Amino acid sequence: GNGEDTYGFAAFPSGTGNNSGNFSSAGNIAYWWSSSEINAKGARFRSMRYNYAIIHANDLEKTGLFSVRCVKD
After folding, report:
1. What whole-number distance in Å separates Cα of residue 57 and Cα of residue 71?
2. Element of type H or E holding 30
3. Counting Cβ atoms within 10 Å, is residue 61 exposed (0-12), middle (13-18) or buried (19+)?
C-alpha cells in the first residue's frame, strides 16, 4: 500500500496535529505544507493516504501541525 520510492522521497504517514497538541491519523495520512502562501493566515498543503494513489491539495490556516519537506538546491 505504500508504493515505490522511485524518486528517493519517503512519504511516511505522520498524521497531523493542532495547536492544542492533539495528533491524529498517524499511520494513515501524511500532510506537508507547500511553499505557496495564500495570505498571512493561510497556506496550501498536500496530503497522501497510504491506501490511495492520489495526492490531495487544499488551503488551510497555518495553525495546522503538518510536516515540512526541505529540498537542498
Report:
1. 19
2. strand 29-37
3. exposed
